[in-house]
């Protein structure tokens, strides 16, 4: 059996580029939302002329679509992810642009029939509305308020939920940008971490869970969680997700 130090070192050494979570196989699990986001965008992308994926990460999800539209574009803010995304989306003819999460999108107005985004850091609703063609849709799976709170509080103590992640506020922001919300679904999903190495890697990869996380700063908390996992078999947390579709008026 690996020691605490060995497990921590494994989690600290694992690469964090892209959004490929295969490293967690056998070490952590998370329930999937019931709506099947990848399947949904795969079906939608096959029916449009121009599609855009905002904050694509390494392009791993977009790369699964079975049929790409004639024009396919993606944006990503983190340079290491940009290079991964370009490799992953090249077979689909996708073009990846390096764009800050809070920046304007580098496209003319009414450029896309469909804009998608999985777990965006933030959503520029004004920009989504601007680049959508009349009748076009924005389809996004977003991180809900209080997601992974159990893990955050195990490291940091009690923290307030992020009101920006509340679904009501998201709907209001979409409508304020002139879009109509036509679908909204929510899910609470169980996640289990079976060793402390998986926790370390997750906190390095999903950096907003514990902002500023480093192994040295949280070593005592990590050791306590390691002991808890050893005694209970897993550390359990819950992710919150919601699916939103907002449509631009046809005229």
UniProtKB/TrEMBL annotation:
It comes from the Bacteria. The keyword Methyltransferase applies. The keyword Disulfide bond does not apply. GO terms for molecular function: S-adenosylmethionine-dependent methyltransferase activity. Keywords: Methyltransferase, Transferase. Gene3D superfamilies: Vaccinia Virus protein VP39. Signal peptide: none annotated. GO terms for biological process: methylation. InterPro entries: 23S_rRNA_MeTrnsfrase_RlmA, Methyltransf_11, SAM-dependent_MTases_sf. Residues 52-139 form the Methyltransferase type domain. It holds the Pfam family Methyltransf_11. This is Methyltransferase type 11. It comes from Phytohabitans flavus.
